[in-house]
TrEMBL record:
Protein name per Swiss-Prot or TrEMBL: Galactose-1-phosphate uridylyltransferase
Domain of life: Eukaryota
EC number in record: 2.7.7.12
UniProt KW RNA-binding keyword: no
Single Gene Ontology MF annotation: zinc ion binding
UniProt family annotation: Belongs to the galactose-1-phosphate uridylyltransferase type 1 family.
Gene Ontology cellular-component terms listed: cytoplasm
Organism: Tortispora caseinolytica NRRL Y-17796
First-level EC class: transferase
Record InterPro entries: GalP_UDPtransf1, GalP_UDPtransf1_His-AS, GalP_Utransf_C, GalP_Utransf_N, HIT-like_sf
Catalytic activity: alpha-D-galactose 1-phosphate + UDP-alpha-D-glucose = alpha-D-glucose 1-phosphate + UDP-alpha-D-galactose
Required co-factors: Zn(2+); Fe cation
Pfam families, per database record: GalP_UDP_tr_C, GalP_UDP_transf
Length: 356
């Protein structure tokens, strides 16, 4: 039997070099009958403009500010920011025992939070926007990242999008967020440590090596162009998880050339369109970009820009993957192999199902 036939039929665990952790893969479990919660697929149609939407052009937001009559991307400070730019100083009590001081640690975190409207059109998503209209979104990410670098009290710039009510998105208007923080969060910190560990052990850069090998093997490639590659990573946790990365080691989004911005826009379009086509619905996901820290005191010798897509749908528009039980108490687990998931996404049309 060839390797694919074996690995698509055995229980196994796979190593995630980006976080130095493992994921359990149980492909035979995908055959089990489903009698659990059924989601309602998002096949709703929305108007190009919604007078009640807080994010549409010219509308007044919940806190009273009025949106500009914007024609492309639009950025504003989050009215309900998770991080404050200024707050009272905090000093921990001095009368604690060493044990109490260790067990009850608290560090103040400050920062800035932005909302980015991808389009003035209320009825669109990234999957329905042509690549040329995604390019301004990427350029906006570049501008905000550069701002984060210029701020002395900011160490990390997290760009992300939650799409769909299933992922906790409170407004269907196409938008994402940026949270700048004074500390580097745990997930990017773990990845950064793993990238440096790999370089110290092998003398080469992890994600450059990984992109080259995946491009050669083709087993897990969803789409690729001259500058970027999108794969279902070998260590994926979510059923149709996708990792997008530039072939060359680009430390930060602001380092992308205009041609690479265009290539990035194309690959984002390709991935999101295929997601929608998978189950003929507006496919929910959380997407985030990891890249070099914005703290000038931290080097970028091993950082490599990349984008994660974490979508929850498992086998249809109504069945989702829950991270519960073993996943919460032991290690992540998935029911289809990365190879099967990539093969499914790869064969889908790159024309949005609503346009076919």
């Amino acid at each position: 039997m060839d390797e694919d036939s074996v690995i698509n039929d055995i229980s196994q665990r796979r190593y995630n070099p980006l976080t130095d952790s493992w994921v359990l893969v149980s492909p035979h479990r995908a055959k089990r009958p489903w009698q659990g919660q059924q989601e309602v697929p998002d096949k709703s149609t929305r108007p190009p403009y919604d007078a009640k939407c807080y994010l549409c052009p010219r509308n007044t937001r919940a806190e009273g500010a009025k949106n500009d009559d914007y024609k492309s991307t639009y950025v504003f400070m989050n009215d309900f920011a998770a991080l404050k730019e200024e707050q009272p100083a905090y000093t921990p009590p001095t009368n604690r025992s060493p044990q109490e001081s260790h067990l009850f640690q608290l560090e103040p975190v400050t920062g800035k939070c932005y909302v980015i409207c991808f389009s003035p059109r209320h009825d669109l998503t990234l999957a329905q926007m042509p690549p040329k209209d995604i390019e301004p979104v990427i350029r906006t990410w570049q501008t905000i990242y550069k701002e984060a670098v210029s701020l002395a009290n900011i160490a990390h710039c997290q760009i992300f999008e939650n799409k769909g009510a299933m992922m906790g998105c409170s407004n269907p208007h196409p938008h994402g967020q940026v949270w700048m923080s004074s500390l580097v969060p745990e997930e990017p910190a773990k990845e950064r440590a793993a990238l440096y560990k790999y370089y110290n052990e092998h003398g080469t850069h992890m994600l450059e090596d990984y992109a080259a090998i995946e491009s050669k093997k083709k087993q897990r490639v969803v789409f690729e162009n001259d500058a970027f590659i999108a794969v279902v990573p070998f260590w994926a946790v979510w059923p149709y998880e996708v990792l997008v990365l530039p072939r060359r080691r680009v430390a930060r989004i602001s380092d992308l050339t205009p041609d690479e911005v265009s290539a990035f826009a194309q690959i984002i379009s390709q991935v999101t369109v295929r997601y929608d086509n998978l189950f003929s619905c507006s496919f929910p996901y959380s997407m985030g970009i990891h890249q070099a820290c914005t703290d000038a005191s931290m080097d970028d010798n091993c950082d490599h820009l990349h984008m994660h897509f974490y979508p929850p749908l498992l086998r249809s528009a109504t069945v989702r993957k829950f991270l519960v039980g073993f996943e919460l108490m032991a290690m992540p687990q998935r029911d289809i192999t990365a190879e099967i998931a990539a093969g499914t996404l790869r064969t889908l049309s790159a024309v949005h199902y609503l346009d076919e």
